[in-house]
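Backbones bend. Our protein:
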Amino acid sequence: MSHAAVTVLAAIFVLFSSVSAAQAQKGFDGVYGKGTQEFSLATGSPGELGLVEALGTRFAAKTDSKLLWKKAGSGDSLKALKEKSVDMIMVHAPAGEKQAVSEGWAIKRTLLGSNEFFIVGPPGDPAKISEAKSAADAYKRIAGSKSKFLSRGDNSGTHKKEMDIWKKAEINPSGDWYIISRDFMAATLKRAETEKGYFMTDSSTWAAEGKKVPGLKILFKGDKVLVNTYHALCQPEGATPGAALAAKFIDFVASDEGQKIIREFGREAHGEALYNDAEYAARYE
C-alpha cells in the first residue's frame, strides 16, 4: 500500500473516531476531563453556573475519567435517572429523591450543599412584596395585585418549590399575569426583567447573573421555606456502565476536598460563593 493511501486511511480513521466520540456524547451539554473511563450526570444550575465543571475536572484528573453533563431541571434529572439514561444526578427535590430511593432505582442519596431562593422583581415593587411576612404572603400580594409573575413551569426543583408556596398561599395561579417560560433559570430571569415581572430565582444564579438584569432587585428573602438543599443520587450498582464511577464521584464531592470546592466556587469571579456546603445545608434538612 502506498504512503499516500496509508495517510488517507489514517485520516479517515481519525475522522471516524471523532464522529463516534461525538455520537457517544450526543445529547450532553458539557464534557469535563479526558480520561478513558466516563460517567454521566444530569443537573440544572450547578451545571449551568460551572460548579459541575469545577468538581468534574478535579475528579477526572485524579481518576483518569471523563464526566458528561446533561442540562436538566430536578424533575427531568430524576426521570433521566429512572430511565437509566444517566449514571447520577444532583437535584433539589426532596420528596422525589426519597421516593426514588424507596422504589429502589436510586441509591447513595448524599447531601452536597445548598443555596436559597430570592423573589426578585421591578424596583417599584407594585405588589409590595418587600412588606410581606412570608413567601406565601409575598405570593398572595402578587396574585392579588395581578402583577406579572414568571414561572418556569418545567417540573424543575424551582417549579416544585414555587407550586408548594402557591399551595401554602391557597392560590391556584392563572391568568394573563402568570407567565410560564418553560426555560432554565438564567433565561427566565432575563425574561422577568423584560416583562417587568416577579420571579423566584436561586441565590447562585442571582450572584452570577444579577448584574446583567439591572431592571430587577431582590424584594423578598429569608423565609426558611426558601432554603434549597441539593443531594446527589446514583444508579444502583451495575445498573449502568458508569454507576460505580458515579458513586466514587459522590464520595469525592462529599469529601473535604469536594466541599472546599463548593464553599469557594464563584468567590473569585463574583465576590461571593454561589453555594453553601453540606455542613451549612444540614441545618435545613
